[in-house]
Structure to design on (140 residues):
């Protein structure tokens, strides 16, 4: 048997499974879309736009998967030949996989957000939580 020294909060923030009265199924990480598109900071914006298709956002990540920024609708519509790093919004607001789904939905509604990126405590992208998916999970 091993003790996880960093504690339960860090365990959940890393996206590792939680059990008990408030298990992982009630948390943001369980409902995040894992297929969210990513790109590197040096990728050309026009190439990214072609590759991501109908997605309305793309996350700029480093070689370790740490989120550096977000390319939203406005950035993805730009026609100039620039890098993802030049077009991205720096440091997007994120939530941890262990965030309780009810609280996240309340926040998203209050801030009129349709999605929130889910990252580990060290900033690695887990996925994208869509408000519609989170609301459906709470109803079901």
């Amino acid at each position: 048997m091993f003790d996880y020294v960093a504690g339960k909060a860090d365990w959940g923030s890393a996206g590792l499974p939680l059990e008990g009265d408030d298990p992982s199924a009630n948390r943001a990480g369980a409902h995040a879309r894992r297929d969210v598109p990513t790109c590197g900071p040096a990728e050309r914006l026009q190439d990214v736009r072609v590759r991501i298709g109908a997605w309305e956002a793309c996350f700029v990540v480093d070689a370790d998967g740490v989120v550096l920024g977000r390319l939203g609708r406005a950035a993805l519509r730009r026609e100039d030949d620039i890098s993802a790093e030049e077009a991205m919004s720096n440091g997007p607001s994120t939530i941890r996989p262990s965030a309780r789904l009810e609280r996240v939905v309340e926040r998203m509604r209050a801030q009129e957000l349709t999605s929130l990126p889910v990252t580990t405590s060290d900033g690695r992208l887990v996925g994208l939580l869509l408000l519609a998916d989170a609301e459906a999970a709470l109803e079901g």
Notes: The helical segments are 8-13, 45-52, 73-77, 84-87, 101-110, 131-139. The chain has one domain: 24-139.
